[in-house]
Amino acid sequence: MTMANWENFLKNLGEWQGSFTRLSPQGEILSNTPSILTLEGLDDDKLVKFRLRRYDNPDYQDPPTQDYSQDYRSLGRQIIFFGTGAFSKGPWQLAPFSEFGAEFGFVDGDRRMRFVQLYDKGLSLASLTFIREFRRGSDAQERPALKVEQLLGTWQCQVYTGYPDWREPELSTMEISLSQTGDSVEQRVTVQGQTSVMQGKVMGDQIHFLGPNPSKVLLLPDGASSCTPDRLQLGQPFSGEVGWLVRPNERQRLIRYYDNRGAWTHSAFVVEHRQ
């Protein structure tokens, strides 16, 4: 474990009141569970006490239906924290006949947003868990539901790439432009002078990108989005992605990449500003 990873983890300290919302792979709300999550730093922040309480009612008055605690003095190597406190966590390897999932987390002032993408043993997308958290005692508000119109335009992006060996994240840049005509969208991504183009269709609260590697973006409440394959294929590289529009002209994304052997290769934290 590097000190930088631990210091970035500490940016999540606090008492966070929110909820765990379970979604179908199509983004439909299946259940909602109120929660209070506490991350408390002790012993000069060398120890972090984690406590998660889940409740039946949103007033948090009744005893919790679940109360789980854990102490942390170090972090597993499968999790990378970036400079804002954002993180990507998941298994090292995709394995046949076993469940597979990844968690993504963002921190912005008195807000946190976390998201879990879970696949079943047949490698089909089984469920999504959307976690919206507010620092207890603050007046932090939920952001509006994400709409395609909020993503249009040209975004200048800083990309921080972290690796399993915990070396210092590499910084690179790219440009993303998204335009819309009717229910069709075009996305242009420019990296080091090379531009790739993807075509997509807007279908309700989803964007379906076409081509050899089709993908589906769910547009969600609180400015959030989730992009992940409906099914994973052994022998094929894949990635999972979650985005958060933290301000009208600032979006953050986390992406976790796996290669054709199903091994986790790297994670990226992308900070985008619209021109």
From TrEMBL:
GO terms for biological process: division septum site selection. Coiled coil: none annotated. Residues 4-137 form the DUF3598 domain. Pfam families: BFA1_C (PF21053), DUF3598_N (PF12204). GO terms for cellular component: plasma membrane. Residues 142-274 form the Biogenesis factor required for ATP synthase 1-like C-terminal domain. This is Sll0497 protein. The lineage of its organism: Bacteria, Bacillati, Cyanobacteriota, Cyanophyceae, Synechococcales.
